[in-house]
Amino acid sequence: xxxxxxxxxxxxxxxxxxxxxxxxxxxxxxxxxxxxxxxxxxxxxxxxxxxxxxxxxxxxxxxxx
Length: 65
Fold this sequence. Notes:
Blueprint: E1 13-18, E2 30-34, E3 44-46, E4 51-53, E5 60-62
Parallel strand pairs: 1-2
Antiparallel strand pairs: 1-3, 3-4, 4-5
């Protein structure tokens, strides 16, 4: 289970889904990241402290609305 690098929560971490989704994802597991993709897209979001973070890195950033 993923842990937020800021608040250390495990129950607030959601995986980003990107692309044109065919159905609404389970909001308890996922957040929608949009259909446009780039090289520096976060893998996870902590809904408790509003931080985006990455799978293979200690980097994180304040989530953008």
